[in-house]
Amino acid sequence: MSLLRVCxxxxxxxxxxxxxxxxxxxxxxxxxxMCGTGxxxxxxxTPGTLLYFPIRNISSIIPKSEEAKKRVLEQSQxxxxxxxxxxxxxxxxxxxxxxxxxxxxxxxSYGRGASSGRAPRGPPQEKADIPKSGQTAKGGSxxxxxxxxxxxxxxxKNKLKKQQHLEQKIQKGAKxxxxxxxxxxxxxxxxxxxxxxxxxxxxxxxxGKKVSEEIPAAVSSAATVATAGKAAAPHKPxxxxxxxxxxxxxxxxxxxxxxxxxLAKVEELEKRLNQQVSHWTSSSCPERxxxxxxxxxxxxxxxSIHSYLEACVFxxxxxxxxxxxxxxxxxxxxxKVLNTDVYNIMMRVWAKKGTLxxxxxxxxxxxxxxxxxxxxxYCAALESMGRNPNCSPKVISRCLNQMEEDGxxxxxxxxxxxxxxxxxxxxxxxxxxxxxxxxxxxxxxxSHSSSPxxxxxxxxxxxxxxxxxxxxxxxLQERFKRQLHVEQACTVTLDSVEGIKPVTxxxxxxxxxxxxxxxxxxxxxxxxxxxxxxxxxxxxxKDYRLNLYPYLCLLEDREYVDIMIQSVANLPPSGESLKIxxxxxxxxxxxxxxxxxxxxxxxxxxxxxxYNAFTDLLAKDTQVYNVLPSEQWCNLxxxxxxxxxxxxxxxxxxxxxxxxxxxxxxxxxxxNLKINSDILNPAPDxxxxxxxxxMYTFRSTRQVGxxxxxxxxxxxxxxxxxxxxxxxxxxxxxxxxxxxxxSVRFGAYLLTPAKLMRTVEGATQHEQLLEKCQDLHAVFDxxxxxxxCAWRINKPLLDIIISIFNDRGSEKxxxxxxxxxxxxxxxxxxxxxxxxxxxxAHMKREVINAKKKSSEMHSLRMDxxxxxSIANHIRDEVFWFPHNxxxxxxxxxxxxxxxxxxxxxxxxxxVFAEGKPLGPKGLDWLKxxxxxxxxxxxxxxxxxxxxxADTIMEDILDSADNPLNGKKWxxxxxxxxxxxxxxxxxxxxxxxxxxTRFISHFPVHQDGSCxxxxxxxxxxxxxxxxxxxxxxxxxxxxxxxxxxxxxVEELRARDAENGLKIAQVLEGFISRKVVKQTVMTVxxxxxRYGGRLQIEKRLKEIDDxxxxxxxxxxxxxxxxxxxxxxxxxxxxxxxxxxxxxxARLISKSGHTVEWVTPLGLPVIQPYxxxxxxxxxSSMQHxxxxxxxxxxxxxxxxxxxxxxxxxxxxxxxxxxxxLTSLYCYSAGLTFVxxxxxxxxxxxxxxxxxxxxxxxxxxxxxxxxxxxxxxxxLMKYCTPIPTEARGKKYQEYRRLLLLLSKxxxxxxxxxxxxxxxxxxxx
Length: 1320
Prior knowledge:
Layout: H1 3-23, H2 28-34, H3 65-92, H4 94-97, H5 124-128, H6 140-172, H7 211-229, H8 241-246, H9 253-282, H10 294-297, H11 299-314, H12 318-330, H13 332-335, H14 340-353, H15 356-368, H16 375-387, H17 393-405, H18 410-416, H19 423-434, H20 455-459, H21 473-489, E1 491-495, H22 505-538, H23 557-569, E2 576-577, H24 578-600, H25 603-618, H26 629-639, H27 655-672, E3 674-676, E4 688-690, E5 692-699, E6 702-709, H28 711-720, E7 724-728, E8 739-743, E9 746-748, H29 765-772, H30 777-787, E10 790-793, H31 795-805, H32 837-873, E11 879-880, E12 883-885, E13 891-893, H33 904-908, E14 910-912, E15 916-917, H34 919-934, H35 942-951, H36 953-961, H37 976-990, E16 999-1000, E17 1003-1007, H38 1011-1020, H39 1023-1028, H40 1040-1057, H41 1061-1065, H42 1072-1082, H43 1088-1100, H44 1110-1128, H45 1130-1148, E18 1154-1156, E19 1162-1164, E20 1171-1176, E21 1181-1186, H46 1196-1225, E22 1231-1233, E23 1236-1240, H47 1244-1260, H48 1263-1275, H49 1286-1299
Helix pairs in contact: 1-3, 3-6, 7-9, 9-49, 11-12, 11-14, 12-14, 14-15, 14-16, 15-16, 16-17, 16-19, 17-19, 21-25, 22-23, 22-28, 23-24, 24-27, 25-26, 30-46, 31-32, 34-35, 34-37, 36-37, 38-45, 38-46, 40-42, 40-44, 42-43, 42-44, 43-44, 45-46, 45-49, 46-47
Protein name: DNA-directed RNA polymerase
Main location: mitochondrion
Subcellular location: Mitochondrion
């Protein structure tokens, strides 16, 4: 009988015995006399009472007391036997379960304290299955028990004999190898008579052993396994295995030898990995991050509890917060979710009031929850003592001593805790009551990155010339006040560029009607909100349930109403998804809440003091500093340490809370906002109709909730063409230099919360990874450098664009036309019998296409309106774009609408605020830049492009002087608006007295030549690939796109000669443009399917190409493009395949792919299997598909397909960051659009030199080898101790793959420094 069955039987018998004991009302004293284990029963009894079952009437089956006692005695004997059998089996399988904390059930349970923590109260059906007493034969139990005892005694004797026999065998064969007994995997040898069944137990925590102790044991175990496994056949072992192994077929020798070599290689890799891990763990490297765990599983619930308590406290509802915490604490299942920081929230509240006894009670709650007080707990206790003038110094001393016993230092209080208001001063006051001379010591601050790539940047500063801004200290301080005012308001109202048009009578009428309606809507919403809050506040819900009420008390009621009215004004005519609308509303509430938190915590005053001192570093009228902005800010914070902490004050809300709050507000709007049906056309049957409708539509195959405005409201808004637009403050560029990033949670805006890393809504793994990382200085400093670039508006160009925008637009120039140009939606009665089925279907398609076109036109028009209105609003300002990044490290400006990453129109309106003289070569660079913007002369040398620009100088000047009425040469350029701006700059320069002294604000671009392939070619040292993408110096630029097009054309011509029809059809249509997008994106992981769609789109743009051949042609061409690239970039394909297969095996093993960039930025791919989560609201149930939940298994397909492009993106972002840092140290103005670098015409040559040097420095690092080492460390340690199952085979395959770094070619990387067209 196996151990598991014995345990199960013991449990069943104990329950049965308990039932009968209850039925006959046997006292606990009798129980204890009959069975020594009766006090450890599964049910709890009330003192002075006997256990009974009140629900079921069992009087009909109550036996006599003597029979009951006899039966209990028999069963206790049986349980003694079973317990002995369990102990026997425990000794048999001790080798299998010695590392597993398996608790075996002891003999029957009769009293209190169930081992499982629950009372085994089964349903009535279980009770019905218990046999009646009459079914047990008298006297049978005695003989049965005797047989069991005899059997147990006999088994013990047999076991003793076998153990003695086994010991003799081991002594005889001590010098011989011991063959494995079970599948070549068991290290232990078990007696033949004992069971071979293994109990699978949960894996023990890695925290139990140090990695350095765990790995050697695992390696030795794996080595023994490998030795034992060499003779093992791949199929299941049989009894004949020993004899068969002697007579092996000679043909199997090669296979066995190959397997032996592979196993030897695995052993060698494991030993090497063991040495690396030992060195790694003994060094000062940070702890290897662990995946999963309780924190991840309960993270969303914990965040919900945390944000709920913070909201209660902020709104002043202390009683609700206290009740909620106690309700969570009382229930064990909910208590397990809590951590110490949750309890600290209430401690802070009582600390403000100086009530130390309440804090003491929460310390007791912490102890009950099995949690230890942390720095925040002791900080609250000390703050309370500091506020209480009657607090004894002895109490403070005891608190400090307890801190020391818990391993916490007083200095860490001031370096790690986040203080609000005067908390820091109160804590310091309490400490000085005991230690009068105490002064907090600042925490050691690592001032620079440990990456060798930036070692010189941080250590050799004697020749650095950090740029200053063209502003005085007073001007910057004044700009700070203006920006602070904007962010405090949270919204900006500005003039629409459409408002420049003359106001017609109808426009004035519609504007008046809308203003009147909005005033009414505000009153209605205000009343509805207050009534709904009263209902929520008085709802008799249980304390432990999360309620929206605290989130509706964070702001003034009127502020919620303003947010709702703003969302109505911004709603598109086609409507908006309920999920998106709710998210935006919730985020607006959260932003206002964060701003008000900073006011309540008194951080605004301190921020102003530090920023005013920080302006010394940037202003032109102060001394030159030899420190970076982030270093200066940290120094100023340490100098002005009193008062609140600036960093990390706010708690982020879970996505579900944001969505639920937004849905609640949308529901209020839909139910309460109404308008008269005859407001536009008077009618006798006037009635109030809703202005918003909740409806459903289909997106692909999914049904989606939609909020759509009534056509009357849409018509009023379109005809009004309102003169004002309202935006959230964070969408506007900043009016002062951004706050430098100094930590993961602090930087960019003054008050508005900003994320360092852009992530999918609800994903937290990136933030957790960043907070563990202590080496992000280079990343911070790069983002700060990009954000410190000051900008201005190119006003002459902006005026031309606005004039075209207000005059019906221009599709050729990418300026969308007004909605008056939209196609009219045909109206027809689909039930009209005059239409045939074909005509009806045709009319339906026309209606759908017209609606789609109209919706697209509205989206494009509003996007252009927003961008141009923002640009017009700041036309006379100098402004800045704060930056953050995505999870791969690619940088982006925070303002979403208007920035230099935008379209041709947006980029053309932006110039540097700081001007620099052109110098001797600046005018030439402007001319070359203009030719680059036209898209012409891509295969020409720089000198050839310069000569071409001189030949078209007349067209350039004409374009500058008469852009709309002249020859309009600029309109045919690839980037027409940037080309026009460049024409104007060249005209101004050549007409100046001395072009070399002309002050130019114009940014000149240097673009990478298929940058993704450049990184692949450098990684693989691929000579052919490097030449194709201009890593190798050449007289003229090599165009990889033209090269692929030429190769495809040769293959097509050959197929056409052989009579292939589609190849003949394609004659004359294969061009660089057709293949460019596919070639560019192959390196970023585009599939053949995606490539076919790209080529199909290009072919559709060719008017002469026969449309009925597009499908076949795109299939044919994508195959040729992929084949051509495979031949041209063999090294690239090998690396790409290695990355893809590595990601596949890693994700199959249950892990997400993670790596670290050469600058130390940790990257993790957030692709997991999707799970559905339903948000229930009164409007509808919103079904959310969450594919970033770290508790779900990784999505293998997404992980493997995304790893190569994401890894290359992380490299190109590293190259950009390195270039930005070294350009900053050289005093250059530098910004980037990913792999396109911008600077002044004067400094293009310097930027080019830095760009090439940093590319060589980056790829001189053993990037692939370091990636291999990191992945081995992350996913192949600790080494598995068992080699029997599938997991070890997967581990071995992964180990061999990750250690086999792709071979590199012979390309000399230093040649990149001489390559003119690397970036050009």
